Amino acid sequence: MPELCTMSDVFILNKIKSGDWIPSLDTGEVYSNTKKGFLKTMVNHNGYRVIGKTTVSHIIWVAANGPVPYGMQIDHINGNKQDNRLCNLHLVTASENQVLTRGVLTFAQAQEIRKRYAKGGITQRELAREYRVKPDTIRRIVNNKTYLKELNTENVPKETREKILQAYRKGRSINTIRNVFGIQQGIVRQIISEELRKITPEETA
């Protein structure tokens, strides 16, 4: 896959080559020789930590692997957008990232959301940002309109899980995969999400 060095990539590489920025791949922080300390970050409207307009995840990835290949996006393996350690980053395609950010939650996460919201001190919008789902998904969860029973993916054989992911990465739709394998659509989506998150940085670098 060809690499396209964007202006953001060039900016990051220049900062690193000049010795100003020293990204820590283990902690996901960026030290500045100019500032004599770790750079302060802010959380943007999408929930990502940024330095200026550049996401910290982008800085860490470029520091370790160079420019992000054309058509690929950086995803946080554990779903936490603010955990920018290199071991928590991997590359996915735009369509794969849509699955990962569309709001595939586990039943346990939904239960946790209900408890946290009932306890107070956090809004539905804040929960939506943290769990990478739409606010409407949180609204439906806390009002017991969805995620009322657990989707069990553990009984799906490893070989089948791998075939489902392969089919998806070849461009098959969720609905087509559901029909081919005879598996509930929600479980298919959950399996794809789980399998994508198993892809390590080494496999996508």
Could you walk me through the main structural features you see in this protein, from its secondary elements to its overall organization?
The protein has helices at residues 7-17, 56-65, 94-101, 107-119, 124-131, 135-142, 158-169, 174-181, 185-196, 201-204, and strands at 21-24, 29-32, 37-38, 42-43, 49-51, 54-55, 72-76, 89-93. The longest helix is centred in the middle third of the chain and has 13 residues, at 107-119. The mean pLDDT is 84. 46% of the residues lie in helices and 13% in strands. It folds into three domains: 7-100, Alpha-Beta Complex (Homing Intron 3 (I-Ppo) Encoded Endonuclease, Chain A), CATH 3.90.75; 104-143; 158-199. A hairpin with a 2-residue loop joins strand 5 and strand 6 (54-55). The chain is built from ten helices and eight strands. A three-stranded antiparallel sheet has the order 1-2-3. It has a three-stranded antiparallel sheet with strand order 4-5-6. It is an alpha+beta fold.
- The N- and C-terminal alpha carbons lie at a distance of 11 Å
Number of strands: 8
Evaluate the radius of gyration: 19 Å
Q: Which structural class should the secondary elements be placed in?
A: alpha+beta
> Count of helical segments?
10
Using the coordinates above, name the CATH class of the largest domain: Alpha Beta
Number of structural units classed as domains: 3
Secondary-structure element sequence? HEEEEEEHEEHHHHHHHH
Largest sheet: 3 strands, antiparallel
* Helix content bin: 40-55%
Kindly report the spatial arrangement of strands forming the biggest sheet.
1-2-3
Strand content: 5-15%
